[in-house]
């Protein structure tokens, strides 16, 4: 059963796409669902802002082999979330 709680759990686990799909389904079933509307706006904004960034940095992260690269990745994360 798809619920706001399940979508929230997915979101907290980093499963943003899965959460977004549930929120969309809940909103289609109930167009007045304010929580689903807010969550869709929040998740859609995150996806647009960082579109393409995840794959590039994922490759960098997977291929890191030095302390310098780790520190560079760490700086990127801090910059990303500030």
TrEMBL record:
InterPro entries: TPR-like_helical_dom_sf
Protein name: Uncharacterized protein
Highest taxon in the source lineage: Bacteria
